[in-house]
Amino acid sequence: xxxxxxxxxxxxxxxxxxxxxxxxxxxxxxxxxxxxxxxxxxxxxxxxxxxxxxxxxxxxxxxxxxxxxxxxxxxxxxxxxxxxxxxxxxxxxxxxxxxxxxxxxxxxxxxxxxxxxxxxxxxxxxxxxxxxxxxxxxxxxxxxxxxxxxxxxxxxxxxxxxxxxxxxxxxxxxxxxxxxxxxxxxxxxxxxxxxxxxxxxxxxxxxxxxxxxxxxxxxxxxxxxxxxxxxxxxxxxxxxxxxxxxxxxxxxxxxxxxxxxxxxxxxxxxxxxxxxxxxxxxxxxxxxxxxxxxxxxxxxxxxxxxxxxxx
Length: 311
Prior knowledge:
Distance between the termini: 73 Å
Number of domains: 1
CATH topology: Neuraminidase
Order of helices and strands: HEEEEEEEEEEEEEEEEEEEEEEEE
Largest sheet: 4 strands, antiparallel
CATH architecture: 6 Propeller
Radius of gyration: 29 Å
CATH class: Mainly Beta
Number of helices: 1
Number of strands: 24
CATH superfamily: TolB, C-terminal domain
Strand content: over 45%
Shape: globular
Helix content: 10-25%
């Protein structure tokens, strides 16, 4: 082969290899950078989240609270249907199926402004401004009213089923009181400004009661033996409903339109409907299915969410 031709071919080959090498390196770098960007933009899953399941129609007028009756597999909803402080006889309790169908809109009528509810056996107990109303579930009728002397604004209820004690709050009087359901005797548990306008309650065990406050925006733990109050977390404006999810994990609603998951004292926001002006009042919970039930107060409906724990 001609030496000149060979030299030209050799030079062309070397130039071709030289031009390919950087291009390959650049492609590799681009691929690596693209992968890095993709990995960086994958957000970690939240500790817990809510996924909407269903909502009722809007006939549950000023619905304030929801409770699940496991024995009957039914939901009860307390409807104020008027002024939350007026003894006007407009309040009612509705019965709903667990998929959100309204079975009986006015199952119980003639209440004033029903709020918190609790179940002992065949009896449903409801706060009604200044009374605890006792309802026979099988008969679907009011069987007794327990007037609470000196009360102003009775709100939430929680139950100790072992002793059949009804614990309830008076938000305006800064009190947590007890009704012995067998005798009808009512006594004070705690009456103190340090309660911070008490609202939502949850009975944990013979030693512990959990409290969400309306006034000082805190979630608290109460030692039932010593009456000592300790703060678990803060920043829950107008605290309303409390439900236990697991050991040291709770759901707490804010009437203004938020639901929080509190795990070992750490607070995570699961729901915020404030921008849409939708309240989140006294929530209910179906433990076996991890379904959270949110009464929307002025929006007149209950919305159900699946609680997803990402652990």
